[in-house]
Amino acid sequence: MHIGLIGLGKMGFSMRERLRRNGIDVTGFDRNPVPSDVMSLTELAAVLPSPRVVWVMVPAGKVTSDVVRDLVEVLSPGDLVIDGGNSRYDDDLRTADTLGKSGIRFVDCGVSGGIWGQENGYALMAGGAAEDIDLAMPVFDALRPRGDRARSFVHAGSVGAGHYSKMIHNGIEYGLMQAYAEGFELLSGKGIIDDPPAVMKAWQDGTVIRSWLLDLMVNALDGDPELSRIAGYAEDSGEGRWTVQEAVASGIPAPAITAALYARFASRQEESPAMKMVAALRQQFGGHTVQLPGGPQMPAGPEPEVVPEPEAAAPPRLPPAAVDESGSPE
Ligand SMILES: O=C(O)[C@H](O)[C@@H](O)[C@H](O)[C@H](O)COP(=O)(O)O
């Protein structure tokens, strides 16, 4: 099988390597001519056999929609485009519509595995029509880890289902990472633990919480046990936010994922305007001490102004309670 691959960045480049190693002929195109095999989309379309299969691996949003728009110009009815980037699932419906108007087929595919995928294989979550999934199956099989297909590939549903699955996968990723990270801080914050990284290392086999993320934590702590070379600042690429937005839209409680997302936002603030206000309000109502920015404690705020109690008003006169024959009020 011979396919086109658009986008030869960190992910696309290593996917091309894995595909070639597993018997798929790949012609790659990137805006950067250095890793490209051809110099234009027209050239790419010219070398691919019919029906053409083109895997798009570029950043979600405008870059993806620009590539799709350009592909409409060079592809033919019956060709298949696969979006393997991290697109939002509702963008897939628009992409399918744009391509469908020219008779071009579309599959969306969430890809997980990061920079380790080239060696370990990528887990794939695809959405689209069954015949389009079948056409691309040799590509999916070359990308995923060897072994039982059902453990690393799913045809999750119609167009959009692949990226919806990947979005929820990433929401879970946020929650898991946050839980491990908080556990590490708690282990490190108590003098009773001699070697917190050693505790995490000992959780790798046999425990209920063993996982690949835990293995990666142990890797990160090897040689930098206090993570002293990394700032406590974490970006997000969108899928965690989309997961939380979906939770709100569906009325499904997702407190762990939401808290993990907010922890990333907080990580980017050197000073928290909201917490400054909390401290100011404590000082206002309780005369509690506050801290100077980055400095020592300030004494309690000014004595609160004493507001005299208003004179108690006379209670309103009420009519006498009606009394029934038993003598009890009604
Ligand atoms: O499954 C994966 O391989 C990862 O999820 C991958 O897709 C990527 O590392 C995330 O997109 C990072 O997402 P954030 O930037 O939102 O943390």
TrEMBL record:
UniProt GO BP: D-gluconate metabolic process; pentose-phosphate shunt
SUPFAM superfamilies the UniProt entry points to: 6-phosphogluconate dehydrogenase C-terminal domain-like, NAD(P)-binding Rossmann-fold domains
Molecular function GO labels: NADP binding; phosphogluconate dehydrogenase (decarboxylating) activity
Key words, A-Z: Gluconate utilization, Oxidoreductase
Domain 6-phosphogluconate dehydrogenase C-terminal: start-end pairs: 162-312
Pfam family, one: NAD_binding_2
Record bears the keyword Oxidoreductase: yes
SMART domains (alphabetical): 6PGD (SM01350)
Family: Belongs to the 6-phosphogluconate dehydrogenase family.
Protein's UniProt name: Decarboxylating 6-phosphogluconate dehydrogenase
Annotated organism of origin: Arthrobacter jiangjiafuii
Primary gene name: gnd
